[in-house]
């Protein structure tokens, strides 16, 4: 039986925390479509941040009630919904878990923008308090419920930092050798040392310790997915009806690099490369995100196993190479702007992703057709774009000048 069909014999009840978000919504639809019983918990904080930043998704996302009604019309399947702040309302979270008795919980419900987390001390404190309390509350509630639930968490490649001593970044654990006082050599595996590049990324590093502790103390079954930058917008399920459309962030805080570049090219804005564009990052298409989560759900660890860590990415690219590729495809201009972040100007990045490949992932990699699909979506909704929201104005330190980064040079491709 191939793994695409395996679910048919093993429907699970799954709570999706953060199921209204960019990754959570298509994942909820995908898991529902393959036969799982899905319940979303979300406090809609991401929609409130849109209001705060006065920046909307490029695509017209529908209110949660409409999303769920249309999904039922289109698929005949119901998805449940609870509006709960999981960082704040522990009792409500525990009640849903004890009432619903899920087999698995998928945890997307964190503030996920690095620039937003660096904007001010208020944003730093919100990001730490939201993300750390959310994760700790989920773990406490799993223990207090007494249920044997598998937790799948969306972590980030950014916990590793983006450089190594030339080796491939392993999947979570590093082999080390220590010398004892008697001179014996002992081999061990430890959590790969973290090197976060923003307050947001730091919360994900701290999540790892919470997972390690509750796994050791309470034998919780936990899978942590260290995901790269997600690109694309629609999946098989979100394409079924325009009202199921996924969000598309393009603003300077929440837009991620590849989607931003594609959107910028589509609306005639110069492509905003930070610094020299020598930063290399890991990427994954949103369709593979939902597939990886399905694979993680269907391959849970046992209670005896340590936290299972997968690198959820399919390829690495240098930012400037992406800009040049898109510039070539679309004749867009490239603007090299001063980097608002504190990060290495250049880095090499080599990453292992053997675990998902061994579970049957067939990676979708960057191809012109998929890039064109995103460009077409961006063109279709270009009239909704507010170009004043494109520049990344959030700086990493007080010394860096806030404001619109200066354009240093332009490349006509
Ligand atoms: P998103 O902001 O679009 O979605 C997160 C959702 O969680 C939102 O709907 C928000 O309302 C909800 N939420 C946040 N705090 C909550 C709380 N306290 N209680 C209840 N709901 C809450 O983000 P996303 O892009 O879908 O990312 C989801 C997860 O995947 C994040 O944890 C992120 O760190 C991780 N991730 C994302 C990317 C990416 O490129 N988007 C890459 C790697 C990892
Ligand atoms: N960058 C540009 N121009 C832009 C935007 C970004 O050159 O217009 C550069 C940034 O300086 C950075 C790189 O592109 O070097 C990536 O930036 P990004 O905003 O795409 O990604 P990042 O801030 O790391 O965060 C995103 C998600 C986060 C997730 C992370 C995965 O928002 O939730 O954890 O990707 S990873 O990068 O692998 O850590």
Chart the SSEs and their pairings.
Elements: H1 3-6, E1 13-17, H2 24-33, E2 37-41, H3 45-53, H4 64-75, E3 80-82, H5 90-100, E4 104-107, H6 114-118, H7 121-145, E5 150-156, E6 173-179, E7 185-191, H8 199-218, E8 221-227, E9 229-231, H9 257-267, E10 271-274, E11 280-285, H10 286-298, E12 308-312, E13 315-318, H11 319-330, E14 334-337, H12 354-358, H13 368-380, E15 407-411
Parallel strand pairs: 1-2, 1-4, 2-3, 4-5, 5-8, 8-12, 9-11, 10-14
Antiparallel strand pairs: 6-7, 11-13, 14-15
What are its keywords?
about 35% helix, binds sulfoquinovose-uridine-C1,5'-diphosphate, about 425 residues, Rossmann fold, binds nicotinamide-adenine-dinucleotide, alpha/beta
Describe it:
With 413 residues, the chain is of the alpha/beta class. The protein has a domain at 13-249 and 284-313 and 346-366: Rossmann fold, CATH 3.40.50. Helices cover 36% and strands 18% of the residues. It has 13 helices and 15 strands. It has helices at 3-6, 24-33, 45-53, 64-75, 90-100, 114-118, 121-145, 199-218, 257-267, 286-298, 319-330, 354-358, 368-380; strands at 13-17, 37-41, 80-82, 104-107, 150-156, 173-179, 185-191, 221-227, 229-231, 271-274, 280-285, 308-312, 315-318, 334-337, 407-411. The chain has a seven-stranded parallel β-sheet with strand order 3-2-1-4-5-8-12, with helices on both faces. Strands 9-11-13 form a three-stranded mixed β-sheet. A hairpin with a 5-residue loop joins strand 6 (173-179) and strand 7. Helix 2 (24-33) packs across helix 10 (286-298) and helix 9 (257-267) runs parallel beside helix 11 (319-330). The longest helix has 25 residues, at 121-145. The radius of gyration is 21 Å and the shape is globular. The model is unreliable at 1-9 (pLDDT under 50).
